[in-house]
Amino acid sequence: MGAMGSADAGTLITVAPTGAETAKADCPQLPTTLDELVETALACAAAGASLIHVHVRDGDHRPTLDPARLRDTVDALREQTDLVVQLSTGGSVHDPLEARLTVLDAEPDSCSITCGTTNFGDDVFLNPYPFMAQLYQQAQEREVVPEFELFDLGHVAVLRRLLDTFGLPYGGRVHVDFVTGVPGGMPGTPAALTAGIQALPPQVTSWSATGIGRTHLPIAAAALAAGGHLRVGMEDNLVYARGRPVRHNAELVSRAADLARLMQRPPLSAEQTRSLLGVKDRRR
Ligand code: KMH
Ligand code: ZN
Questions:
Q1: Would the N or C end of the chain have less CB density within 10 A of its end CB?
Q2: pLDDT tens string 38-69
Q3: How far apart are CA 10 and CA 203, in angstroms?
Q4: pLDDT over threshold 50, residue 7
């Protein structure tokens, strides 16, 4: 499986700094403006992140898929950082599928593609197969590298179906991210993560994992132990330690980088991540 499980390799650290679920009013330190996002990206890059998973907010700090905002965000991050820029195509649970299919117009380096509908707390995160198939083919045509998001074990079957039906992504690499601990998805436990890893198809060349909320540390440790990469950030977790809120995304990246170094798999540079994922160089 290519780069899978090579314990001597470094660690791709993804930061997911904002998400679509937390309100700015409840968490003023959440980066929601473009200036805050760029500042966050720079600090997280300095702390060891090499990829940023982006959800954009509007002038009222609410989630949006506004094409101009998406484009401005990609441009600003590309101009001011070296990070691989990944746009979320998941958006918020309230975004219509048609709007989610316009995200790639902003020409990101990478995009998320969630491999199935999942329960999401009281809501449903909708991903019908024809939508996923259309999005995947769009990513191939536009030479955008997908990150396949797996919220549940059954999503591995959809990943296999997409790869077997439409072939490899642009760049020839297959990177997946286990999103564990979502209420209604696979639990954030080492056992669930291990089951997911064991089910991956042979085309997969790298994988990362994140654990929502209090599962973030055990999942990070389990992922490193199993040769995987890490995703951290305030999209997934707002608590640094019991009774101690996250003050800045860079704190979470910094701790992930420390863990990775401790495991003798130090953070990958942005260039190493570009090559790991087969990203097209769109920088001028
Ligand atoms: N906000 C969630 C409903 C993605 O970015 O692609 C979906 C999500 C996944 O965050
Ligand atoms: Zn997301």
A1: C
A2: 999 999 999 999 999 999 999 999 999 999 99
A3: 20
A4: no
Could you tell me which residue, 8 or 116, shows the higher pLDDT?
116
CA distances from 5 to 86, 223, 265 (A): 23, 10, 11
d(CA 90, ligand 1 centre) in Å: 4
pTM, two decimals, is 0.97
Is residue 9 very low, low, confident or very high in pLDDT (cuts 50, 70, 90)?
confident
| Closest atom of ligand 1 relative to the 120 alpha carbon | 3
DSSP states of 220-249 as a string?
HHHHHHTT-EEEESTTT--EEETTEE---H
Residue with tokens 């590298």: 145
Ligand with the closest atom to the CA of 114: 1
Q: Which residues neighbour 129 within 8 Å (Cβ) at sequence distance 6 or greater? A: 158, 161
Reduce the DSSP state of residue 87 to 3 states and report it.
Answer: strand
